[in-house]
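Reopening this one. Same input as before:
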Amino acid sequence: MALLLTAAVLLGAGTLWWFSSARATDLVTATDPVERIPRAESVPRELEPIWRAPSAATTHPVVAGPAVVTGDGGEVVGRDPKSGEIRWRYSRDLDLCTVGAEWGNAIAVYRTAHNCSAVTSLRGSDGTRGPQRNTDVGFGTRLLSDGSYVTATGERLFETWRSDMVRTQQYGIPTDIKIPDNNLNRPNCDYSGTAVGDRRVAVIAECRGAPADRLTVLEANPEDGEQPEEVMTTLLGGDRAGVVAVSRKRVAVVLRDSAELVIYDMSAKQRESYDVRLNGSERPDQTVRVEPTSEGGGGIYWYTGRDTVALDAGTLRPRWTVRDTLGTPDTMAGRQLVPVEGGLALHDSATGERLGEIPIDRGETTGPVRTETVGDVVLEQRGDTVFAYR
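Same output, byte for byte:
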């Protein structure tokens, strides 16, 4: 009888393991941690290609701690920036929705039957698995980081996590809830644009029956995690709006109907507006519902689809503009490396003065290009591929 009982227990445990997510998960950590590259002291005059890797799960180069992280299919890979050598890998028998980074960790979001619900964090230096969670965000989600929190975007619902992957706020309606218990969640709205900054989340809502798009700013970590905490909300002066950036005191919105960048304060008062050049009436990347931006050198850099605009990190006012660019820049040795046709234009971070250009042969690529630097390594994401130069 005891033998039969033991066999039954083992059989049950084996069956649970066979159908569990653990059986379909493979993690190989780094034997030695990825070494951090020192910050570049100067900008090189020339760059040569050193490696490339597929990364369909990202829209821009992802850096977690000292590693460059790529995601493709169901696999997340941590690479040595200088060689592209795979130092650790994590894979599942599910497709990736997206990969992001914060707190020195890579954050992998996997697709399940109904949404992008399976989330795993991985230490950037060696791939050690960290906190995990399940989420309710829908397909097409992207991860936005503000230095303190990560927000997973969504058309009908988005939510924010802290470093232990505990959810701090959720806004919108999960698919399994028919009648919301909080009208602040705006059940009759689709979220068509999101930005984060200074522990706040700004979102554009397209609400049925409303005369225009609605802008709302929320606290990323409200006192009550079950109740959204609105900082401000207002109807905008048009449709097809997008959130470009948010700070503690300001939020910048692009109105595509009028080709304007409009800045509001947290009392919902319009402070300034600026004419901008856009690439038609649509976002440069319609699928992610996020305006292409990068940060560094005391500014926020927005790619309009035609130009790159440098915004002050606090006031969000435009400081300078580079016309006819291909995407977002990054900082190296106090210079902005702005992708343009034929290479990277070098601009002073404070003044925007053009200081030179580094040639890069991108073949027939015309954009968009998202740029990131790791020490003296320059990364570009073009389409589904990350390219590294040194």
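So the earlier flakiness isn't reproducible anymore. For the record, The chain is about 5% helix and 45% strand.
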